[in-house]
Design a protein that fits this description.
The protein is α/β, with parallel strands linked by helices and 189 residues long. The chain is 38% helix and 25% strand. The chain has one domain: Anaerobic Ribonucleotide-triphosphate Reductase Large Chain (Alpha-Beta Barrel). It has five helices and seven strands; from the N terminus they run βαβαβαββαββα. Strands 1, 2, 3, 4, 5, 6 and 7 form a seven-stranded mixed beta sheet that branches. The longest helix is centred in the first third of the chain and has 20 residues, at 18-37.
């Protein structure tokens, strides 16, 4: 079994002080050391915040903040960051600017929450996906965005990860080897 990711979630406060980011990054790195010490290799280290619209003030502010988070992600040797989701269809077009102004950043838009579909969010998301596909030469920037359906905070996997509440972490396992071993055991018996 391998650990595909350790994702630490923290409540970002604006203005962003490096100390708050550093503490979350150090926690993530310490968790990695402990798991690896116990024989579990860790593939990626990630960090996520609460939904970005909670600290959104303007297009200019969010772009500057994304660049700052990206620089800190690199400085502390983390692999990726997520600024979470938006539930407001009016904010969905800003996701383009978030993705375009980062190379390590992920974010999402919530289309369905509590089993209720937001059709305007779905329309805005469809437009966004088309626009994101044109940022780079092969459309791969779309992989840093997801449309969410009834997704709760705390997932370790990107792009869906976002955070709520106290600092926490989640582990994403890569355990296809366990499935293979169990399949072999089943076939032998």
């Amino acid at each position: 079994m391998k650990i595909r990711t350790i994702t630490t979630g923290f409540e970002l406060k604006c203005p962003l002080y490096e100390k708050q980011f550093r503490e979350a990054a150090e926690f993530t790195k310490n968790a990695q050391k402990e798991f690896e010490r116990r024989g579990y290799p860790v593939q990626t280290l990630r960090i996520s915040t609460q939904p970005w619209e909670d600290y959104f003030q303007s297009k200019k502010q969010i772009i500057e903040l994304i660049k700052e988070i990206e620089n800190l992600t690199k400085k502390y040797n983390l692999n990726y960051f997520s600024v979470g989701t938006t539930r407001n269809p009016e904010n969905i077009p800003f996701v383009y600017d978030i993705i375009k102004n980062s190379s390590l950043g992920f974010c999402t838009a919530t289309i369905c929450d509590n089993k209720k579909i937001n059709f305007e969010a779905a329309r805005q998301t469809a437009k966004l996906i088309r626009k994101l596909s044109k940022i780079g030469p092969n459309g791969s920037d779309n992989r840093r965005f997801a449309a969410l359906f009834n997704t709760k905070a705390g997932s370790p996997f990107f792009p869906v990860a976002y955070h709520k509440g106290e600092k926490s972490f989640a582990i994403g396992l890569e355990n296809s080897d366990l499935v293979y071993i169990n399949r072999l055991h089943f076939l032998k018996n």
